[in-house]
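agent: user wants the full assembly modeled, not chains individually. Plan: 1) parse entity lines 2) check alphabet per entity 3) run joint structure prediction 4) return tokens. Steps 1-2 passed, four entities, 520 residues total. Proceeding.
--- entities ---
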Amino acid sequence: MPKINRYVDISTVDREAKKDYIDRHSPFIECASTVKAGEKFAVTVRMGKEYTHPDDPDHYIRSISLFNKETLLAEATFAAGALGGAGQKGQAEVTFHVVPTGKQMELTAMSYCTKHGIWECDPVQVAVEE
Amino acid sequence: MPKINRYVDISTVDREAKKDYIDRHSPFIECASTVKAGEKFAVTVRMGKEYTHPDDPDHYIRSISLFNKETLLAEATFAAGALGGAGQKGQAEVTFHVVPTGKQMELTAMSYCTKHGIWECDPVQVAVEE
Amino acid sequence: MPKINRYVDISTVDREAKKDYIDRHSPFIECASTVKAGEKFAVTVRMGKEYTHPDDPDHYIRSISLFNKETLLAEATFAAGALGGAGQKGQAEVTFHVVPTGKQMELTAMSYCTKHGIWECDPVQVAVEE
Amino acid sequence: MPKINRYVDISTVDREAKKDYIDRHSPFIECASTVKAGEKFAVTVRMGKEYTHPDDPDHYIRSISLFNKETLLAEATFAAGALGGAGQKGQAEVTFHVVPTGKQMELTAMSYCTKHGIWECDPVQVAVEE
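--- prediction returned ---
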């Protein structure tokens, strides 16, 4: 059954290869911590902070989904090659533009690597102001 | 057979309702006209320039795809509600971050409205410099 | 962070409403237990065994994904209305046709309900014969 | 701008390579010509009738979508490898199970090959009986 891999703070990890493995497979969310009700805001999700991932036809980041709590907001699917293709490495990235609902959003990103399965970030809290 | 609706310059259109209909269903691409080979760049696709589209559960913009010539680079799928939900209107928007290939990219966006089908923008030329 | 809901044998559940809730949100896999290497076979995934799910625009089964261990094989995405639309109920269903790889497949289905999130079935073992 | 390739009766085509090219990229719909209102029925879409398509990581059938007139009913996305993987060939295939609406459905399938773009079949008429 597919494991949901979760981010581990790589400063607590010893082995360089493991730091790289965890970081390049983890989606990181960047967005404002406070947003205005009814106003579209940007949520960028980028794979990896310090490391890069292959963009090979048989090994690439296929998708990034954005959830607010249990609810899917949007999903991006990439073709192999969108980061330069075979032999190239990069950080898959998408910016979703969404309108906040409720008083507090809890954003999570899930991603899928065609070789190393499903990964999920820690939830990010976003306060919604009237 | 699903029609591929194409953008028509709305300044040539008389009826206000038709301007609105065409504009709010058309994907518009925003990106640099010249990019550097091997360097990730941002391609924003936004639905509508002057008008907004409903975000109702039974009538919303479900997806935006980005092509380079015949090749799909990435696709974003939205849930109804990502722009505020029932009764709200907005411009669905996504920013893809891709690495250029070749010497010239020809970007096109296709979108799908759950009531009014498939729409496509005019191709946008992007020069790729070494 | 989105919970991955897992099937619970509903014969062990007392409350009728809970049986219904669990069953109608759970993907069930139907396929041969032994297949031939290199020969395409059918894997049907159906939501619910004894109960049905709404197909309302704001509450429907949006997707069913099929995994072999950690690897995504295929995904089906449905539009609200594919099961009759507002006021109707049914069991979302898709049959994927895939070619087995390896000696043993471990199939899992994940599904997404627009109101009740992600659900996953127990893995199904499929022996692959030469 | 991505071309929508349409099926051409290959018995009218001379060159064997062109017959193969057209056939293996064309989605073919199989379903009953008359269905009962409110009753789920099966719609199989298979790529190619007489020829097979590669399932290589950089060249495979990525998706098959099913439309009723202008409306998307369902979409299947495949991973490279679902038909056996590198060096293998096959006919990507999915069976959607949908509930008819209206008195007459006009089904069309669109597919996407990662090397040869978008293809569409001729519409198939399905009568819906009370």
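agent: reporting back. The longest strand of chain B covers residues 104-113. Chain B has one domain: 4-129.
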